[in-house]
């Protein structure tokens, strides 16, 4: 069976007035069905560029991206993206319920409604369905963005530093929410972050990228089991060891044996 996502020899160079800038170079990896892959790399290394290439928003200069064995041309239908900046990802004039239903507009009304209600319940926002985004806190708005992606039931959920702009407590809650819903709905997730601890806490596997231009330095298995707990897991010896290994790999520029 082909992997859910296969990225092969990916490279991307931005052409700007003041010269060309290579953001990604020779990047290859796979995301297996049902896996939660965290991709960690320094700020500015090319993580968002990678997500744009996978989601068909930009055409990469080199290499290929395949979803279920089919090369991606344009924006694939069975993929959803959650961006970092919740304040710009929701429509302020639509209610929470309508925001979540928006990508489902081709479905019959009853099904649209049911899926949105289910997703809002999963993120603990049933009571806010009739509110508007501006009536909610930042953490709640990001929950709406996550609910919208889940209601769409994508084969692959891509997340670009989705918890980077919320406070620490909310971040912990949203991380645990993601772990719970991906278990319940068996979603395949690829999440990019610059946060080493977050990559280890959430991932089944962590792909470490080099500084710009991003290339794969190593991929590490995270043998922490499915049950994770913010205080105990982060304090465990395995966790501390893994985060030290990821931190060490982040210094490397060339692929190394993990
Ligand atoms: P990350 O998400 O890892 O912080 P990005 O993918 O946003 O990194 O950017 C990688 C590099 O590409 C950065 O040096 C950034 O300045 C550059 N870059 C990003 N978008 C563009 C663009 N549209 N045009 C030119 N350069 C860009
Ligand atoms: Mg980015």
TrEMBL record:
UniProt keyword annotation of Isomerase present: no
InterPro entries: AAA+_ATPase, ABC_transporter-like_ATP-bd, ABC_transporter-like_CS, ABC_transporter_ATP-bind, P-loop_NTPase
Stored CDD domains: ABC_NrtD_SsuB_transporters
Superkingdom per UniProt: Bacteria
GO MF annotations in UniProt: ATP binding; ATP hydrolysis activity
Keywords carried by this UniProt record: ATP-binding, Nucleotide-binding, Transport
ABC transporter domain ranges (all copies): 5-236
PANTHER family named in the record: ALIPHATIC SULFONATES IMPORT ATP-BINDING PROTEIN SSUB, TAURINE IMPORT ATP-BINDING PROTEIN-RELATED
Name the UniProt record assigns to this protein: ABC transporter
Native species: Actinokineospora fastidiosa
Biological classification of the source: Bacteria, Bacillati, Actinomycetota, Actinomycetes, Pseudonocardiales
Gene encoding the protein: ssuB
């Amino acid at each position: 069976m082909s992997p859910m996502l296969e990225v092969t020899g990916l490279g991307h160079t931005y052409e700007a007035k003041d010269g060309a800038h290579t953001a990604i170079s020779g990047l290859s990896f796979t995301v297996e069905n049902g896996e939660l892959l965290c991709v960690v790399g320094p700020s500015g290394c090319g993580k968002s560029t990678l997500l744009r290439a996978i989601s068909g928003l930009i055409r990469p200069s080199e290499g290929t991206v395949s979803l279920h064995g089919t090369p991606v041309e344009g924006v694939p239908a069975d993929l959803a993206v959650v961006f970092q900046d919740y304040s710009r990802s929701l429509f302020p004039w639509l209610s929470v319920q309508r925001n979540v239903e928006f990508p489902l507009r081709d479905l019959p009304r009853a099904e649209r409604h049911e899926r949105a209600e289910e997703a809002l319940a999963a993120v603990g926002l049933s009571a806010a369905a009739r509110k508007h985004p501006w009536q909610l806190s930042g953490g709640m708005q990001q929950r709406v963005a996550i609910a919208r992606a889940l209601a769409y039931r994508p084969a692959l959920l891509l997340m670009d530093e989705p918890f980077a702009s919320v406070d620490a407590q909310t971040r912990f809650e949203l991380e645990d929410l993601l772990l719970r819903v991906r278990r319940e709905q068996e979603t395949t997730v690829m999440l990019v972050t610059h946060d080493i601890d977050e990559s280890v806490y959430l991932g089944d596997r962590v792909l470490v990228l080099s500084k710009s231009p991003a290339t794969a330095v190593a991929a590490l298995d995270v043998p922490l089991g499915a049950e994770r707990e913010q205080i105990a897991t982060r304090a465990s010896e395995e966790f501390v060891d893994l985060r030290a290994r990821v931190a060490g790999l982040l210094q490397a520029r060339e692929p190394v044996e993990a």
